[in-house]
Specification:
It comes from Carboxydichorda subterranea. This protein has about 220 residues and is an alpha+beta fold. The protein folds into three domains: about 10-100, no CATH class; about 105-170; about 180-220, no CATH class. About 40% of the residues lie in helices and about 25% in strands. It has helices spanning about 15-45, 90-95, 105-115, 120-130, 135-165, and strands at about 50-60, 70-80, 85-90, 180-190, 195-205, 210, 220. The strands form three sheets. A three-stranded antiparallel β-sheet has the order 1-2-3. The chain has a two-stranded antiparallel ribbon with strand order 4-5. Helix 4 (about 120-130) crosses helix 5 (about 135-165). The longest helix is centred in the N-terminal third of the chain and has 30 residues, at about 15-45. The chain is extended. About 10% of the residues are buried.
Amino acid sequence: MELGFIVPSDIRSFKDLERFIVATVLAKVAELVEAAVRRIDESLSPPGRGWKSVGRKTKRVTGLWGLEYRLQRRMYRRRRPDGSWEECCPLDDKLGLPHRERFSPGVQEWAVELATRHPFRVAAAILAEAGIPVSAQTIHRWVQEAGASREAEQRRAVEAMEQTGELPPGEGREATAVICEVDGVWVALQREKQRRWELKLGVLHEGWEPESPAGRCFRLKGKGV
């Protein structure tokens, strides 16, 4: 198989070779993404009447694996009734790219997922190891935005249920009954204004099932803590 590139002579270890190959492949990925973006942008129609083209503008986006994209896309603007200007980019709307965000949606999704398991600074450190220089404050903002979006989605689902009386479609398997058991334990605090704090534990399950054919011992069915 032809490589299509020359391996540098200063490579002294397999680790160096691996890093060189990965960097070469990622550079090609960035080129392909930028070329695909240009093709998609050219296929999009202007937003409509009243919008005037202001030419192409470059949007710098940091993606997964620390890839840096220079996305060329057409911009339009029009004057609002109050005299101010508003801008529109059909490509950003098509691909779901926030207008003033310099990280790709994939990076944001990964950061929010990390933040559900680690502190914000640890999540930022993990991303930095992957070549993505994002701050803990930025991750915190993304988590807040994701939470607000999820809350709005749940609110719309509840409002739709109240209007129609129909339950929204569930996710995963169905259960005949779901039982919730909750308990807590109080622990003493030191050097805090509040002297005691309750640690709570909740368990969801679908009832009890025998552990053995004799039916003397039982276990929780479909347990989730």
